[in-house]
Amino acid sequence: MKPKVLLDKVGLWSATVVASTALILGVAPMTAKAVNVPTEVTEDGKNTYKKYCSPCHGEEGKGDGPLARSMLPKPRDFTRGAYKFRTTPSGSLPTDEDIFRTISYGVPNSTMIPWDILTEQQRASVIPVLKSFSEAFGVRKPESPVGVGLEIRPTERTIAEGKKLYEEKLECWKCHGVEGRGDGPSAAEQEDDFGFPIKPFDFTTGKFKGGNSDRDVYLRFTTGLNGTPMPSFAKELTDEQRWCLTHYVMSLIKPEETCK
Amino acid sequence: MKSLSFFIILFSFLGWGIVSSKDILAERNYIEEEVPDGGNVVGNVKYMGDLAMLKLDLYGGWELTDTSKNASEKLIASRINNGLKYAVISITNIAKGKKRLIPKTHPIIDQQRSNFIPHVIAILAGTTIDILNGDEELHTVHTRTIKNQPFNLGTTYKQRISGKFDYPEIVKLSCDIHKYAYAWIVILDNPYFDITDRNGYFEICDIPAGTYKLNVWHEELGNIEKEVTVYPKKITNIEFVYSQN
Q1: Which chain B positions have a beta carbon within 8 Å of A82's beta carbon?
Q2: Which of A93, A164, A236, A245 has the most B C-beta neighbours within 10 Å, making it the best mutation to test the interface with B?
Q3: pLDDT (tens digit, 9 = 90+) per residue, B144-187?
Q4: Please, which of B8, B106, B116, B166 could form a disulfide with B130 given CB 3.0 to 4.6 Å?
Q5: In 10 A of CB B83, how many CB atoms?
């Protein structure tokens, strides 16, 4: 073999290895499994919480910090252990990864920003502090995450079926409106577990609070949003029906509205 | 190798079961024993408010949605003897007594014409409740609990949902689509409790002799507490009165 060809081959292989390592390293740290979540409340975690979280969420995690008064949706009250965005079934406590994900990505359409200015270690150190505010974590354990079945490709058929579910079987329009603008007949009277008014989500904006991928929207139907009126349809719909509903809801997004 | 791993998984599950049931038992300090010569407490709960106000039709026949057409079950008192319905009576400070019998057939709460039936249910901790939907439209069942596992599920026609309640708590069960509809689940630690009938009567049986605190809970009128002394094989009468204010 000529030296030049050898160089080419080695170069190609090494480039592949370097690129794939970079990819793996780039993707992996976003889950808490790669980051070490401390089991006990640490001094570092307390300080991070006090500096970055307590202005809104309050010193004791009751969601009553000095900045909370002007906010709607209100900052989460951690004392009930009700977390909206989870991979666990309805009512269950969240896993550490779920909390880490919400801290890292933030919640669009609210005042919770993505806290990527903090290091991963700082973000992870806050998790035991949040858990210590609620007695629920002492009594119950988070259930195992729900399985996301085989994803179905969006087609005209699945969207039509999802529309049927949205309008006839589940009557989602009662809160979310016929066009998905969050203006259904029951929309005005909804309130969350803490007694604050809550608006049904406007799908046309396309800024889904729990993440914009199909999988994220599917998880919201399956797990529900704890602490809000949004129920789980895990027992009501089959796996395929939930994917159809996901595709219909995603088809309600109006690109011209997303720029606002 | 496969069978070995199967056994490991099986035993780990069994171990988990024993540990978790111990956790629950440790929380209650209630000793079960035979009560051969227990006494009974029989009584009446009364509401001395203005009964005419309860049946007043404020809407005067206006067209309303189905849920608000149904009379509210918040405060129901008998016109004959002022007896209060749906008050829960329980003994709060009992250390030992009759067996805690958890019913094998699950108590049922049904949703009919957007209302929960019955409106108040009292159960022993550890009981599973079945929640049905008898309407041809979507309802949600939403509980807000901290110790017990909360849930918020959508249900359609003829759907049956089971929920287990392990810790003493007073739980409000509501439907978010029909805001008027709600029910109460009162979970109690010991088997000495009863719920009043439509004339306000209740009966608690087989209580070991002694002096106990009797607590009445009503969703609108709050709590009343009284002491009662129980004698062996005798019936003790007691009356609770809620005044108007």
Answers
A1: 150
A2: A236
A3: 888 888 888 888 888 888 989 999 999 999 888 887 788 999 99
A4: B106
A5: 21
- B38-53 pLDDT, tens digit per residue, is 899 999 999 888 776 6
Dig out the tokens for A12 from the structure: 């190609």
Task: Classify the C-alpha dihedral B84-B90-B93-B98 as positive or negative.
Answer: positive
Who's near B14: CB < 8 A, 6+ residues apart? none
Orientation angle between helical segments A96-105 and A120-132, nearest 10 degrees: 120
pTM score of the predicted model: 0.77
ipTM of the predicted assembly exceeds 0.85: no
Rg of chain A over Cα atoms, rounded to whole angstroms, equals 21
Does A236 contact B155 at a Cβ distance shorter than 8 Å? Answer: yes
Instruction: With beta carbons under 8 A apart, name residues in chain A contacting B138.
Output: 169-171, 174
Q: Cα–Cα distance between B16 and A249 in angstroms, integer?
A: 41
C-beta separation of B130 from B159 below 8 A? no
3-state DSSP assignment of residue B211: strand
Question: Which residue is listed with tokens 């007695």?
Answer: A135
Closest CA to B43 of B243, B239, B229: B239
- Tell me which residue of B161, B138, B164 sits closest to B150, measured CA to CA: B164
Q: Cβ B176–A80 below 8 Å, yes or no?
A: no
**CB pair distance less than 8 Å for B140 and A234:** no
Q: Give the gap in angstroms from C-alpha B94 to the nearest C-alpha of chain A.
A: 24
Ramachandran angles phi, psi of A34, nearest 5°: -75, -30
